[in-house]
Design goal:
The protein is α+β, with helices and mostly antiparallel strands. It contains 37 helices and ten strands. The longest helix has 21 residues.
Length: 842
Amino acid sequence: MVAPSLKLQDLIEEIRGAKTQAQEREVIQKECAHIRASFRDGDPVHRHRQLAKLLYVHMLGYPAHFGQMECLKLIASSRFTDKRVGYLGAMLLLDERHDAHLLITNSIKNDLSQGIQPVQGLALCTLSTMGSAEMCRDLAPEVEKLLLQPSPYVRKKAILTAVHMIRKVPELSSVFLPPCVHLLHERHHGKAVGLPILCFSSVDRRIENRMGTPAHRRRVAHTHRHTRNRLSCPWPPPFTSPTLTPGILLGTITLIMELCERSPAALKHFRKVVPQLVQILRTLVTTGYSTEHSISGVSDPFLQVQILRLLRILGRNHEESSETMNDLLAQVATNTDTSRNAGNAVLFETVLTIMDIHSAAGLRVLAVNILGHFLLNSDRNIRYVALTSLLRLVQSDHSAVQRHRPTVVDCLQETDASLSRRALELSLALVNSSNVRAMMQELQAFLESCPPDLRADCASGILLAAERFAPTKRWHIDTILHVLTTAGTHVRDDAVANLTQLIGGAQELHAYSVRRLYNALAEDISQQSLVQVAAWCIGEYGDLLLEGNCEEIEPLQVDEEEVLALLEKVLQSHMSLPATRGYALTALMKLSTRLQGDNNRIRQVVSIYRSCLDVELQQRAVEYDTLFWKYDHMRAAILEKMPLVERDGPQADEEAKQSKEAAQLSEAAPAPTEPQASQLLDLLDLLDGASGDAQHPPPLDPSPGGALVYLLDLPCAPPPPAPIPDLKVFEREGVQLNLSFIRPPENPALLLITITATNSSEGDVTNFICQAAVPKSLQLQLQAPSGNTVPARGGLPITQLFRILNPNKAPLRLKLRLTYNHFHQSVQEIFEVNNLPVESWQ
């Protein structure tokens, strides 16, 4: 005998009483079999009960796809109890990926046309949850009509459905534009308070008088009386009561925001209602609509926040609208109570609005001071929000943010990792040439005690700031040495090369640097980056170390045996990496030409590593040993001091820029002419083309051989190469990417590509990242971009430099990947550029 089907409550109890997963699956499989049999029998009376049990099974994660068609049958039913469960099943079991969702379009359209408010509410909820683009286009006229219905209950749900439609189909903006101005006058702005699902039975009596059989109406009336007595549910349901009325005004503001973000015409249209929005917000701040919407003494903070966000959208890049709301923003910023979290939320949105519009300078300073006050709040979330906001403002309002530098530095000691990381990023952004010494002391102290996961970022930030704002070379060297000593294993890979270049370019600090590094190496050989720099410096300037005539530090007498013993210790240490041993072995080899004693000890150490397992180290040892035995007469010349290497970095770029400007000024300056050489210069100017310049020739060498020298120099001045045309490689929704090319004449194998990202749309492009790849025969180096945000309406573009080395002049192909956020959506594009100009690689 087949066991009868369980009721929903009994099913829940039996599932919860299962002690193992297998028992739970057994109960569910058995009940799903009963549900399938009931669906096959076509029982119309108990179909909604079976579907309710199936929905509970679906919520537990078990398959329930076989109930999709039953949802459609229940929605098409004339009974409210069926419609209620049918619409709930459609919201849970159907989505755009299922073709079955299109079958309920006609049922939703019929229910929206009826005058029964609960049925209209169910249809609107379902449409706003799983409505596809096709459904939104078909049902937009019905939703537009419901926006002007007298019932606040239906209007609020219609507004939220319109928001979903705009997000799905932005082309429908023109449909919902006219009703929004009328809805701004709505005073029912309170928080949405939905009816409990159990209280739906209290409306069945009124609905079933119009729908259903007499017998069913009697059963529902009995159920209503029983439920009302137990739950004390009010009768009739207060659909028009202000306390249960959904927030018409709040939903309208949200709808206008969606329209403005997706339609330039809507943005221009709603800028005319800025005074009305300002008046609504001023009324909220001063008097408030009603005390029942206040939270912790703040009048309806949800509505205030939404209005501030809408004002931020309307005032962005529009000076007239910004001036209209300046006084109001100052009033909100000064009168909002910050003792409660609701007030802090309103104040934070006010700050964001001030910073995003064309606000007055004093108002921006007030906003920064509010964020500085947030840093003293005991709530970690508020402090985190303040640090993140100040980090966004540090570029535009640097001086105002600098006033809160002590408070930001104190936040470095936060125990919360996310807070200390944000404080570190903001502290590094606050470093400039005037406070670099004080900030570096604070950051170096933090580096000694910071968590391991922050040490790499802190060390990297200190090195970059020191390279950019170093007051003297000695201070720069001391700062890098301190970082290497404290966090040598966490520094960037290029720290060693940068420090060796810095020391090599500071000839007056060679003796000071080698002594500092020798002392640091004698104390600790575990920091690999420090050991590598020290070994290189000892090998280059070991003679200065032995002289001991450095006046800037305490005198220290070092003999040759101590230096050699220290390098041998590095070679034999189990902590030394193969690259570190290579530095030490090279340093020993260079000391063989700088020390005055016998080189037998160095020869023995080098010969030991001829049989080393590391191939790189073995090759070096074999080559060095060959220098000793076969080419000893060339050893001194081969192991001379390294020449200076041109540095790449912010300082080098600035120095190159200054030297270029000085050269241009010197070329523009007038120079005396030699009358004896004017005829020869006129003849030479024929090759340069500019006849007008012959009237003011540069000075020539008056010696007899001067003319010959200039004649010989003529072939060395080729005409400048033709410019390479720019190329547009990407365009989507106003976001455009252009490539410009430069091939330096002194290095034809090098191609410099400048990526320029512009934005002509109405929404900002944030988190912009551009990545590139080239064939293996080419070498690609990506420079850091100028930013990660492209402002709307042709704001400041983002530029990024690509350096491509193509020595074989192979055909150039470029693969790009773009990731960014636009209109609250994440965008990722991967494409290949094959139409690069031939001049860029030939």
